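Hi W.,

Here's what went into the run:
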Amino acid sequence: MKDEVTREERLDNLKGMGCSRKRVEDARFTQGKGNYVDDIKLDGMLFGDFVRTPYAHARIKNIDTSAAMQVPGVLAVLTAADLEPLGLHWMPTLAGDKQMVLADGKVLFQGQEVAFVVAEDRYAAADGIEAVEVDYEDLPVIVDPFESLQSDVVLREDLVAEDGSIPDGAHGPRTHPNHIFTWEAGDKQTTEEVLANAEIVAEESMYYHRTHPCPLETCGCVASMDKVNGKLTLWGTFQAPHAIRTVVSLISGIEEHNIRVISPDIGGGFGNKVGAYPGYVCSVVASIVTGKPVKWIEDRMDNLISTAFARDYWMKGRISATKEGKITGLHCHVTADHGGFDACADPTKFPAGFMNICTGSYDIPTAYLEVDGVYTNKAPGGVSYRCSFRVTEAVYFIERMIEVLAIKLNMDAAELRRVNFIRKEQFPYKAALGWEYDSGDYHTAWDKALKTVDYDGLRAEQAQRIEDFKAGKTRKLMGIGLSFFTEIVGAGPVKNCDILGLGMFDSCEIRIHPTGSAIARLGTISQGQGHATTFAQILASEIGLPADSITIEEGDTDTAPYGLGTYGSRSTPVAGAATAMAGRKIRAKAQMIAAYLLEVHDNDVEFDVDRFVVKGAPERFKTMKEVAFAAYNQAIPGIEPGLEAVSYYDPPNMTYPFGAYVCVMDIDVDTGVPDIRRFYALDDCGTRINPMIIEGQVHGGLTEALAVALGQEIAYDDMGNVKTGTLMDFFLPTAWEVPNYETDYTVTPSPHHPIGAKGVGESPHVGGVPCFSNAVQDAFRAFGNTHTNMPHDHWRIWKTANELGLHG
Amino acid sequence: MIPAAFEYYRPKDMAGVLSLLEQHGDDARVMAGGHSLIPMMKLRMAEVPHLIDLQDVGGMSDIDIDADSIRIGAMVTQADIIDHADLADVAPILREAALQIADPQVRYMGTVGGNVANGDPGNDMPGLMQCLDAQFTLVGSGGERSVRARAFYEAAYMTAREDDEVLTAVKIPLPEGGYAYEKQKRKIGDYATAAAAVQIVNDGGTCAAASIAMTNLSDTPIYSEAAGAALVGTSVDDAAIKTAVAAMLGDIDPSEDNRGPVAFKKHVAGVILRRTIERAWSRA
Amino acid sequence: MSKKMHIKLKVNGKDEEFLAEPRELLIYTLRERLNITGPHIGCDTSHCGACTVTINGKSVKSCTMFVAQADGGDITTIEGIGGPDDLHPLQEAFKEHHGLQCGFCTPGMITRAAKLLEENPNPTEEEIRFGMAGNICRCTGYQNIVKSIQAAAAEMNAAKEAAE
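Here's what came out:
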């Protein structure tokens, strides 16, 4: 039979890698049929909610729950005293510390969970909370990490020995009761020598303020203990459902096979939903105690003041160079404010995440990094808000240091970057702080970016603007923000990346159905990234069945293979690789079946788009669909029936996406109001699976970068009160504040990834924050500015102008 | 966020409202659109045991324009103001200001009466009404009385309205001349860092009358009589504007908040007022 | 607890009657009492618009309205905008132009956009951005939302012209 369909049409029919396939998720979301955790409704379901402390540091003298128990509809009020016999009043954090589930004798930050009220509905729970009486005794509040390290006030008495000595923490020796760890990378002595003897040294201190991922859906869960069968089901907003299952098993003693964790649709995560929160533990306990399902859903204020924050890094840098601008050394010290408990979500061996990527995209021969973690009376967390572990901090640091060095050298900042980029032929490149960059072509990307935006023209326009400003013809300055970033994503190799001892591999299991469609299950979980769309595209290209015939399922630990979840841009680099590898196993078996059906040797057929073809005789072929049917329904000697495969992928290395961003901004010197005129983003994420989705990820990441750079913060007053607990004050931009972005790309595949993909979801945030910030700072460079701290809200921009004497 | 329980009433006429107010005194609050009150109740920062919803009370949803004045019923929403073509003709500053309040959904619910009556210094309408020299109609058990907007505000959330009175309408003399409402804010939905309302009359190149009010720069809106007076009789040149700005700065008393410290707010207030005057004058 | 009220609503064309505490927020009435879970809760303080529904012809944030206030009202949620057999052009356009990611803001976003296009069938980009400023999206950066609304407007205008 003659094949009427061209090869090109067969390729199109697959909707495989490289095409902008429309998302399969969208039908339900656009019709209001998503299934988020708060949509779950079970028979007899109860509602739990927290009494939270208004004090940032206080001793609890008494908790009186008697009035609350009289409130109609209130069934139980749990306190630490109730959890203690179960050993659940404290829980382990992801960072090797422990955290109170409910306040055990004292509270350490405003909003900390004190008691859990369980009621028939959320109204009764709210009334019950009002009726719980807690007697607090104020303690001195510390919101400054530097003060904390000098203070006699001990925040964590549980971490001081009876004789007053300070036992080691999870990451080694501690120097003060409020000190958590010191972590270092690189060569201290050589770096100091290089800096001491350098022709040029630039220094800067910068504060990367505390902010919050603030997904539009808050955190929450529904716990349902089936006492008849001894099975616990836990639905929740979990970015890592399998890890949650293991943690719940370890702390509750329930065997892991009796726990089913389900992440339904998740309304955005951005790192906020990686950790384990007291709400999860209390819901489980409450369900066990009452025998009924218990739901806990945060409100927005709960979410902003108590669940995982991001950043809060005080960074001090020194960078040395020759007079010509060749960088010779870099020194970075960080004082990291971790709040009341160390609940950072980082791989175990990396208490400061991958901050040691802070040499950036530059060939810096010598570097040293030292990070001190510190307790304060602020909320715990320290998650990676739309970035791989602390990479946003690292990239902000180096991209600011480059600008500061350019000022010191009186050199153009774009040229300074170009002079110091790691050259294409240096890859794989071993960086001074330990990482091995897989691939890159920075000069090509940079040149393309600068040419597209007409960089020289912009600088000429800026120079004219400065003249006009000085002549009194305008009150607006023009800033050109540059940033060139290298991400480090796809954690990661099990040899150096684990969380709580769980290796950070990921997985995919594929079942091909007899009629030529398929289901694939993964250990990851989408929170808007479109996995159901893109992973099907990877598989379509690998196994030759149309993406539309492949269902992708994630988030149910009873059915999905074990995996470490979705954060740090790890889904495509790790689970995407597992998907390709599992697909290749399918193909290998299918090839044997096809050869049998075509009556030739295995090696005499080859795969072509959607079929196996006899070499040299393209008219003789069996489609994957035909092979699938045969796999189940035809007895083939020496081959087991069925067509299934599973792959657990432990990546040999991280992947290193990169990009070149340019922002053009006008700044009203008198009011501090910025106006983003243009934003150009070139991303190189290796092989591109779905350009439409990549572009969408870039728009979103840039918008979150805009928010962080220009105003979004979790701010505390001296008493430890959160000043930004609602969306009136916590800055989430609307469509009105956001510009249109221009996107562009180059393609430098990862050499070690099966399909060459590197991950993209977080790149725009990582590269965007310094780009927006640099634009603000650049506007004032001609008037003597070297550095001002974010967030660049109106008053801080105004303050910069004011301090530079621009208000006359 | 769940508010405390309350009794709810939806009387059909003002007599019903007034008798409830009389009966429950301090424990009762009237509500129009609810977009100021409900968030406060949800945060449990406002306790309202008896909530009186005004939506069924007739006669408060009209905009009437006659030869020398405008009457706006208390239940007229910001969206109604924006959509009212005749109003935009005779008093365009109302539309310009309403567009800068909150966001579309909130403007459908938020009313003129609620905005002027609750005494939140962040609200935009009070300053605007002072600029326009509006009169607020208050109805109570003792009958109806009228209070000038310029005399209505005493402190944050404290006004000349008695607990048993309802603000039923706003009466504005037809504005003359050029106008502008300028508001600096951090984002859509925010209160002003500084906002200015200016109405100004140009008589052959000389300012014949000027009215200036500022928003969110004190614990009440600030009508700056001195600032307006500084412009009258001038050609609204740089020197006159400087004098007006200086006069305004003498009248405001901003406090520090998340938008910034006092020095910043004062500076921005000056810049915003200058721009508002210039724009209003260009339209005069 | 206060005494319960007898409430009547019309939701997506269907009459509903029930007893409820007046403080019940309309969003919970819809989501928990009537199992209409399209509208979501994002901020609780009327800033994010995830809970947007249309009531008596107005776009309203249903987290900031008591069910008692809504009594007698005619409500449309995303479920009433279009379904599998009668998709609204906005629902198709959001999919076609990647106007959503996590989907959490989408029901409120589309419900609001439908009202916007009813009032202004031919909005400029600026009018769309201003008219949608009561709805926050954390994922898309709005660019593709604007594009989706523009495309739906064009589609609806073309259909109207064809019908005339």
